[in-house]
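## Example record

The block below lists the input lines for one assembly entry, exactly as stored, with component labels intact.
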Amino acid sequence: MIAVDWGTSSLRCYRLDEHGAIVDSRTSNEGILNVAPGKFPDVLQKQIHGWDDAPIVMSGMVGSRQGWVEAPYVPCPAGLDGLSKNLKKVTWGKRTGLIVPVVSGRESVPDVMRGEEVQALGAEVDGLICLPGTHSKWVEVKNGRIERFSTHMTGEVYALLKQHSILGRMMQEGAPDHDAFSDGVRRSGEEGGLLHHLFGVRTRGLLDDLKSAASASYLSGILVGHELRSRAIAELRLIGEPELVALYARAAGILGIASMSLDPTTGVRALFKLGQALA
Amino acid sequence: MIAVDWGTSSLRCYRLDEHGAIVDSRTSNEGILNVAPGKFPDVLQKQIHGWDDAPIVMSGMVGSRQGWVEAPYVPCPAGLDGLSKNLKKVTWGKRTGLIVPVVSGRESVPDVMRGEEVQALGAEVDGLICLPGTHSKWVEVKNGRIERFSTHMTGEVYALLKQHSILGRMMQEGAPDHDAFSDGVRRSGEEGGLLHHLFGVRTRGLLDDLKSAASASYLSGILVGHELRSRAIAELRLIGEPELVALYARAAGILGIASMSLDPTTGVRALFKLGQALA
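Predicted structure tokens for the full assembly:
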């Protein structure tokens, strides 16, 4: 079968054998934001050229309003069985693709997840999992079902402040500065709240208290610190890009929280199971 | 004398009589971001054409690195006497202007203020004053001196999220929606923290729980709510633009905090006093 992780900024295709092992993989930057409307079949077909396997199971933003087609919503608690029953079929030429539904939750306001549900369920562990990113997800899994989850805009707010705010004007590119990042994590626990702590990125720079090459790391520490402090946790289980996982683990360490990294290819495992369930 | 409030986006000039009463005023959009380097004397001279009064006392971002000249820093506790001794002189033709220094504070990180210090001191009341804006200031005044203060990036973060984030994509222009604003203020007290609450602007919209014309007001309520909740206050005294003051008063009301609005022209009064001290 073919497993496809199609997100906002990248397209990752995996060819799997009958045991679910990855025998080939191809990655491109044709995330959904780089695909013209109506061109999703062409882009995918080109990417999986020469792979004639079936089924093709896809997860991620490809199932959003800005993607190939909007997938149905499956409310929490949601397990692989519920996802399997609500796959959205797309066809092109003689081929068929199946898009994993969106998981929706509702505490006091609704929340949605596209792509992280297969990573969290594929990990096959119970408990709370953090998937850091543009929109970080905190997912609670129990008996193979997603009980509840919440989203934090940490990555997007970081990028916005760096690119468009007055904080970004004084920043210079530089290698990640671990000390400045740690300072930011500690700062996030002081009085005044996030909106106040952010302004310190500027004022510390103005008063020569922070080098301009270190201020992006300090900002990152403030934001990740606020995200972690908003959850009362004793242990942090992480799935994600290695650099980001290392950053969150560092922040957790400063807060006295033990952390561990789970295999980031768990999503492919869950897509394989969804494919098997179809057979 | 002439009092000048020269900020980022506007230039306000006031001609005062010998009692400090405003006898004439002129406002333009020639804030410091709209003035080419070296053109500050020309812009001011044109704006006060026909007013031959002296002294000319100026406050605001005109005294920043991006302004006419960077004014000296006066640390807290700072009163009018300390400001008066550190006025920065600028000259052009046969005229002289005096720029009010920057007030700096340092709790665990430094903070700075340009322009709000004359408004807070001009109010001539002791206690905590909130000056909402792009960078909201919370100023503690005691015996006519600024004891300490802090800055919150509330207004800038609101504008950034509206213009550049995924939240802004679903927003439609509309009249301010008081109910949505109030919902946002209430939401700001729930678990999960600001970075989580922000994402609800998107998900409530996605799931038809929030109209796109109301989502900017909901976002505003979340941010102002977080700002107010970060301070433990029984009463809120506000100085600022009437619309913004009304918004903060509404949020305070939801949190059970009494609020009152102070005269927003207090800054001119303080500039008059600084001018008198020179005589």
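DSSP finds ten helices and 15 strands in chain B. The radius of gyration of chain B is 20 Å.
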